[in-house]
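From the pipeline queue, job 12 of 40. The input is one protein chain; the requested action is below.

Action: predict structure.
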Amino acid sequence: MYHANPYQQYRQNSVTSAGKGKLTLILYENAVKFIKQAIKFIEEGKLQEAHNAIMKSQEIITHLSDTLNMDYDLSNNLHSLYEYINRRLIEANMKKNQLILGEALDLVSDLRDTWQEAMKIAAPPEAIGL
């Protein structure tokens, strides 16, 4: 009989019970985490690990872009920003360039922070799990 790691089980439950707003925040947080990892891996000369981390962040940004509701003007702007971030991530991956990753990190961090603030304004903390 297999017993799941309690931390993994907690994380799985957190994701499956989260609302759309919280899931978006989790995606932003993970994109930030993977970009930071990529920067660290490049510093350490671990280029394959850097590549893998960048690819994970690209997958998240692509998912965020693909799930936009294009009925809103804001979605068009976000789509363009996501495309730009992905292009920069691709370039950073090809060149293993920390400065480009830093730019992408700043953009994704700003999106995460803005999203978190919007969630606080839209609902009381107990309703969004903060």
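Job complete. The domain at 6-128 is CATH 1.20.120.340 (Four Helix Bundle (Hemerythrin (Met), subunit A)).
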